[in-house]
Structure prediction request, 319 residues.
Amino acid sequence: MVKKMEKNRLVIGVVVLLLSYSVSAQEPFKKEGKWGVSEYGSEEDSIIVPAEYDAVEIHYSSVGKNLYTGEKNGEWKVISKNRLLSQQSYEKIVLPDFEDRYAYCYRDEYIDIVDLKEQDFLVRGVQADAIVDGSYQLNTAENVLLIARGKNYGLIDTKEKKLILKAEYESVISNEPFTEELAFLVVKSGINYVLNRSGEVAFEIEVPQNLTKVETVLEIENCYTLYVAGKKGGHGFYDSDNEWLIPPVYMSVEPMEFVSEVIVVKDKKGYGLYFEGKQLLDCKYDSISKSDKRGYLAVVKQKEEEFYLNPEGKLVTLE
Prediction:
């Protein structure tokens, strides 16, 4: 039985995969209870695939290479003029609705990914269940596929044709702005990892929420502004050289005079201050600025009063 399905798929029974090099009108044909593919859907035409399959399906793709699928003896096979493709057997082979170029072939908790345009494997032997839609999580990244294993996620680099992140992270998103150095933000067991474009760890921090954005701090090497979205989220700061962490819970976080030792933070109640990663002042002051006196970190104002903050965290009044 032949019938039409959404996305212009022509379906006959259960699915297995055939990749066609030809742009001619290839159609399935039936002979003695088995299905094959010929140039125009007749056993009298030029035979492309002999009638030896229990079912055949055609997926039409915009990449210029149609995807043929079929089933034989309960196993799914990739059938192609590429012999390596055609020799493999799978439990299932899927071209996702959201994906037009890459199909995944599943067997024994591993997937092989097929590139329809190149008519070849993209990667093989990846421990995952499927390719999943990453259009939201990876909206600032290019040439990557999001893969899933259960509730965990990983990444495939389609340009380099390799796995760059195993499917073992609870969350995977692309950074904004996306850069080679700060490309992906991932979470595993409550720890946030910031990765470069190759999937290598730039730094890791432990904060209660998942990071949604990381930016470099101008004029200060290896220092970053952190951001967490949501009602309980905000800006934070991290100095990876000294491992000074200011949690991302503030409305703003600003280094004083381009140094990471003194950081002024703000929330709804006012301004506060961190020194060398330790909070010296709570957010309750009207303003905090750089001190003009040697030996003091800042000038602190509250209402009509003005104080000087020393490195020990004491506010003093100078005559």
